[in-house]
Amino acid sequence: MNAPAPATDADAATVWFLNGPNANLYGLDANKTYGSESFPVLRERCQKKAAELRMTLNFVQSNHEGQLVDWIQEARGVARGIIINAAGLTYSSVPILDALLSFSGRIIEVHMSNIWRRESFRHHSYISKAADGVIAGLGAEGYELAIEAMARLIRRAD
């Protein structure tokens, strides 16, 4: 579990990228459902993309629902956007939805796999109700696209 780096109000391009349960195991799945890149490699890839776009990215992961809720609440007033892959909590977490609904910035939901081509219980996302957009099924490229889309949403709001 990694804590987000402190952000300040002066850092107008701060975005928090929150990853839920088991994302830390990316690249270790024998079926390659989530690709072959490890979580640390994916984090580095996302940090590089954010730097290219002049954004500060707090890229973190937790296996605990309450920690994700705490981070969403901490982002209020200091982050311009949240990108979230709530993983398995996508389909069950009203607390994460409620926290996201209290966030006034932009929100993008992202998934490594195409959740609509998987088990039927994955076809309903609580997170989507709070999200400005959803990117799914593009693996690590989807993570980068989410960062690019967030940069555009923030620029439009300025």
Mean pLDDT, to the nearest integer, reads 87
Using the coordinates above, name the CATH class. Alpha Beta
- How many strands, what sense, and barrel or not for the largest sheet? 5 strands, parallel
Radius of gyration: 14 Å
**How helical, in percent, are the residues?**
25-40%
Strand content: 15-25%
| Whole-number total of structural domains | 1
> CA-to-CA gap between the ends?
33 Å
DSSP helical segment count? 4
Question: What would you say this structure looks like, in words?
Answer:
The chain is built from 4 helices and 5 strands, in the order βαβαβαββα. The protein has 158 residues and is of the alpha/beta class. It has one domain: Dehydroquinase, class II (Rossmann fold, 3-Layer(aba) Sandwich), CATH 3.40.50.9100. The radius of gyration is 14 Å and the shape is globular. It starts with 13 loop residues before the first strand and ends with a helix. Mean pLDDT is 87; it is low at 4-12. Catalyzes a trans-dehydration via an enolate intermediate. The active site is at residues 34, 111. It catalyses: 3-dehydroquinate = 3-dehydroshikimate + H2O. Substrate binds at residues 85, 98, 112-113, 122.
Topology of this protein?
Layout: E1 14-19, H1 39-52, E2 56-61, H2 65-75, E3 81-85, H3 94-101, E4 106-111, E5 133-136, H4 139-157
Parallel strand pairs: 1-2, 1-3, 3-4, 4-5
Helix pairs in contact: 1-4, 2-3
Question: Could you write a compact summary of the structure shown?
Answer:
GO terms for molecular function: 3-dehydroquinate dehydratase activity. The chain has one domain: Dehydroquinase, class II (Rossmann fold, 3-Layer(aba) Sandwich), CATH 3.40.50.
